[in-house]
Amino acid sequence: MKKLAKAVAIFLAAAMIAGVSAGCSSNKASSGASAPAKNITLTHWLWVDDPSYLKTMQTIADDFHKANPTITVKLQTYAYADFNNVLTTALAGGGGPDTASFKLTWTPSYTQNNYLVDLDNSISGWSGKADVVPMLWDKMKEAGSGKVYTMPWTWQVLYVYYRPSYFKAVGINSVPTTFDDFIADIKKCTTTINGKAVKGFGLRGSAGGQEPWGSFIQAFGGKFADASGKVILDSPETVKGTQAFIDLYKGGYTPATAPSDGLSQLETEFNNGQIAMFIHHIGSSVTMVKANGTDISAFAVPKGTGGQWTSMGDTENVVLSASKNQDAASKWVEYLAEKDAVSAWDTTTGNLPVVNSVAEEPAFKDNQFVKVSMDSQSYAGIFPILPTTANWVSNEWAPIMQQALTGKITAADAVKQLDAKLKG
User: What are the chain's domains?
Assistant: First the structure.
């Protein structure tokens, strides 16, 4: 338990316009959200890494309704790659849900537009607050205002999934501990194994690819920002790391579809035996183990000559200020951060728990993917939380990197553009 607490403390680092239209001028939920006297329906938007996870979420919503008979929660799912754009488009048009899944890096762009409810008063009267790892609240506080707009839900640390049988087949006797060895092993695994053409690495050039790319650039000494938060992407070190990322594709060590590949494609490629390794987090572990049995394991992203970094992912839940039922909405996001809901969701998805009571359960303590997540926590970090970050992640990184991967621009050009876009 102490180990998990320490890990989380360090961590604390229109398509479809649906739902409730704006009608409540207040952007604060009242203290100690209570069940309403009349029957209401809340709309909750979320993304899921696997369609089967929605069944668990529906069970959680049904259990919430049993405990709060006057509140019904309607779930709507969207692809993660489109989620931020769909949500902001809906909100800008005066619609959107009552509550939604969320990323910390999106916070500034939402609070600038008064889209989020300040949850401070609600949290202060919430009985489940004490079970959440205490330092998590510091991370949830918005820089400058100190207000809390997000409720914890899940967190993850990215690491490298690999197929042990492939390592054995090409003579790799231990997992790489340096970034040079990591690249070398990718190349070794790009061969024919058991009669199947295999690529060493599943490169993610589409949505979400900025996270593994971040490990590459920082292995060569690149940085997103300095200690003051100033963006410093445009550096020779970042260019070197970007070139190494590109070279894997150009050298034929990744699938030909890499520029457009997202998470679902990488998982399919791995499950089909087409790739030996790819970078993601514990949220994929349950379905990946089901598909691959014992022929799947993981190791921490190795250290490069310039440094070591991996992305620490997070998913929160928020109440939208457009909701006409903010007290009930606050009660719902509080429920999602309580033991029963967290245990049900994390048992299904394999995510790391945000509450102490669930983290103590043997299913999490004894899990190999939890262990590698813990082993990676000391150098895990998040992208700078800036007003530009949400758009940079959702709309800027992939198109620019895809141009670099396909040879339309150089690594240096890509880095210069990414730097400028993140600075805004």
Answer: 2-156+313-381 (3.40.190.10), 159-280+388-423 (3.40.190.10)
The per-residue pLDDT for range 244-275, each reduced to its tens digit, is 999 999 999 999 999 999 999 999 999 999 99
What angle in degrees, to the nearest 10, is found between the helix axes of 263-271 and 285-292? 20
One DSSP character per residue, 177-188 reads: -BHHHHHHHHHH
Long-range contacts of 49-55 (CB under 8 A, 24+ apart): 49/80, 49/263, 49/283, 49/284, 49/287, 49/349, 50/286, 50/287, 50/349, 52/287, 52/348, 53/345, 53/348, 53/349
- Position 187: which residue type? K
* pTM listed for this prediction: 0.77
Which residues on neighbouring strands pair with residue 217, listed in sequence order?
Answer: none
Nearest to 314 by CA among 353, 345, 286, 341: 353
> CA angle, corner 66, sides to 79 and 132, nearest 5?
65
Q: Could you identify the residue written with the tokens 């992912």? A: 313
Q: Residue 195: left if φ>0, alpha if ψ -120 to 50, beta else—which one?
A: left
- For 337-371, the pLDDT digits (tens) are 999 999 999 999 888 899 989 988 888 888 999 89
Q: Is-contact 334 151, C-beta < 8 A?
A: yes
Longest dimension (CA), the chain: 67
Contacts of 189 (CB under 8 A, 6+ apart): 166, 167, 170, 172, 198, 199, 200, 201, 276, 277
Q: What tens digit of pLDDT does each residue of 151-200 get? A: 999 988 999 999 999 999 999 999 999 999 999 999 999 999 999 999 99
Per DSSP (E only), the strands in 180-260 are 191-193, 196-202
Is 167 exposed, middle or buried (CB count within 10 Å of its CB: 0-12, 13-18, 19+)? Answer: buried
Are 154 and 281 within 8 A, CB to CB? Answer: no
CA–CA separation, 297 and 289 (whole Å): 9
User: Cβ distance 190 to 253 under 8 Å?
Assistant: yes
Structure tokens, 157: 């640390």
